[in-house]
Amino acid sequence: MIAETRAKLITAARQAFGTIGYAEASMDDFTASAGLTRGALYHHFGDKKGLLQAVIAEIDGEMAARVNEVAARAPTRWQSFVDECTTYIEMALEPEIQRIMFRDGPAVLGDPALWPNANACVGSMTDHLTALQQDGVVVTGVDPETAARLINGASSQAAQRIANSNDPEATSKTVVAAFRQLLEGLLKKADGPADQRR
Fold first, then answer.
1. Domains of the chain: which residue ranges?
2. What is the pLDDT of residues 139-156, one digit of tens each?
C-alpha cells in the first residue's frame, strides 16, 4: 500500500512537472489526480520539493538504463564511454527530461553535482577512465576521478545549455561536437586509426 501510494504521487507529479513545470504545478491538482490527500504527500515526501526529488530519482534511473543500453552496443570501450556521455547530453532534447532534469531540477534543487545520484555517475566514469588508461587508450598523466568530475560537470552544463536554448536541436549539435572534441583530448596519440582503440 505504501509503495502504491508513493508510485501514484510520483506518477501524478511527473505528469504535472513535465507538462506545466514545477512552479505552476499545484499540490492539490496532483494529489487529486492520484486520488490522494495532501496529507499523503506530506507523509511520504515532506513537501513538493521532496516529491520533485523523487521524480528526478525515477527519471535518472530510467536515463541511466538507456545510457547503459546504448553504451553496451559500442564496438570499443572508448566508443562506449563517448556514447554514454553524449547520449546523456542528447536526452536534453526530450521535453519531459529537458524541463524536469535540466531546467526545473537545477532551479529548485541547486547544482546537479551535489544531487544524490552524482557520486554514482562520477564513480562509473572513474571506472571507465581507469580501464581505458590500463588499456593504453587514455593518457596516464590524468587522475581518473578528477577527469570524471570534470567530464560530469561538462556534460551537465552541456545538457542545461541545450535545455535552456531557443533552438535546442541546433544547440545540441554544436554542444555535442564540442564535447566530443573535449573528450578526444584524453586520448593517447596513436599511430593507427582511432577505430583500432580498444
1. 1-46, 58-185
2. 999 999 999 999 999 999
Amino acid symbol at 187: L
Residue 59 has what DSSP assignment? H
The predicted model scores a pTM of 0.88
Nearest-Å Rg of the Cα atoms of the chain is 19
| Domain range 58-185, CATH architecture | Orthogonal Bundle (1.10)
How much is the average pLDDT of 73-86? 96
The residues, any chain, with a CB within 8 Å of residue 60's CB and separated by 6 or more, are: 101, 117
Residue with cell 532551479: 107
Distance of CA 16 to the CA centre of its chain: 20
Q: Say which DSSP state 73 is in.
A: T
- Residues of the chain above pLDDT 90, percent: 76
C-alpha to C-alpha distance for 34 and 146, rounded to whole angstroms? 44
pLDDT band at 195 (very low <50, low <70, confident <90, very high): very low
* Cell, residue 114: 551535489
Residue 97: which residues within 8 A CB-CB, separation 6 or more?
Answer: 59, 63, 91
CATH topology of domain 1-46: Arc Repressor Mutant, subunit A (1.10.10)
User: What pLDDT digit, counting tens, does each position of 39-52 carry?
Assistant: 888 888 999 999 99
**Distance (Å, rounded) from C-alpha 113 to C-alpha 159?**
13
